[in-house]
Fold this sequence. Notes:
- The protein is of the alpha/beta class.
- It is about 35% helix and about 20% strand.
- A hairpin with a 2-residue loop joins strand 20 (about 470) and strand 21.
- Residues about 1-15, about 285-300 and about 470-475 have low confidence and may be disordered.
Amino acid sequence: MMVHAEGMPRMAQGTQPVLLRPYQAEVGRAVLDSVLRHRGLTFTVEVARQGGKNELSAHLELLLLALHAAVGGNLVKAAPTFVPQALISLRRLQERFADAGLGHAWQREAGHILRLGRARQVFLSAEPTANVVGNTAHILLEADEAQDIGREKFTKEFRPMGAATNVTTVLYGTPWDTATLLEETKQANLELEQRDGVRRHFSFDWQAVARHSPPYGDYVERERQRLGEEHPLFRTQYRLLPLAGGGGLFTPSQRAQLQGEHLRLHTAAPGRVYVAAVDVGGEAPEGGPGRDSMLRQAQPRRDSTVVTIGELNFSLCDELRPEPAVRVAEHYWWTGQPFYQLFPQMADLFRRVWRCRRVVVDATGLGAGLASMLGKALGGTVVPFVFTAQSKSRLGFELLAAVNAGRLQMYAADGSAEYQEFWGQAERAGARFLAGQRMDFFVDPMCGHDDFLMSLALLVKAAEYLPRMAQGRVSD
């Protein structure tokens, strides 16, 4: 391997050179300068998702291993998890060895180390329980997806690895909220840049990447239309803007998008496709505590079981928006009533009144029994949904995407208690952004209930139904 004039690698004879994009090379030169001149700088690098930050990292590792193969030393890379994140980086470096014609020159040690000559690249997990103390970073210390690595873990156990050698450190990732390791280090770097003029923070959003890859720009534009510019994932992963840490789930403009003009229905219209969602609330005290019921004892009513019926519209589906639009058609709610008493009525509503093609049922806790009974009665139409931190986060992101794209609308004002409760919950709904690029959404129990909100989110899940198409018409 040789190094060309700009300080980035040129492949060995008989292999094809890998050309980094200008923004990747810009970061690479700054990191190499700090490493080779022993400056010990800390860099933060934010590149839009799939924009090439991991490829940049692999090429830097390859070059530095080659430069230090004779003299030795360690590079250390931390990732939020070993499987799959650190392992993916390890395999990517193996591929770069092959590209460089070094396929037989490296060796793997202890499952997490790649060695070239006397130099080693060490891949470590930054999970809270991972035992990483004792490793030393002589050449470079990296943190992949640094927004998901705990600040205390990195500061206490990874930073000291490079203290003796004044090691250069690079934190890669995309923003999340303002309290992450990446964001706090970025803000410190921006302050240092103001003092000494040395660039330490690099940020290239999706538009910067798209200037060098038009197909990438086309893909992200489709994501922008699908998710909306203010969707938490689009905002952080493509626009590279941090989240405020929490607040309302829906903005006033999103609530305006959610408000529809169609009339509420009480039975299925001929030729239309309907789906349903069931959020299972607490039963009366003799039936046992329901979800959040203990937190809501002081409220004027207990958490209810809420059914939301949605009408699907496939006429606007295309490549940019493959999901159908869904209009809330009807609501049903019952408070404190055991699910085994509700089952016959629900089964009749779903089968005969609305002819639902899909019914998503909250199968968490008490809901598991109702989901099982409905499943036996309605067959594959019923889809159980178990709320976990991960599944609820995905559900929240899907809900926001549907609202942002104008695919989800509530029926027009009808003066009903259901309409008022729905909008009361929509206005009170909050969001909290968690580590691992997850979110939670809720209504504070001291302010009310979230049963209509959760049923609405489950309706978006139900709207994933794809009908069989026959001669351009929806078919059973």
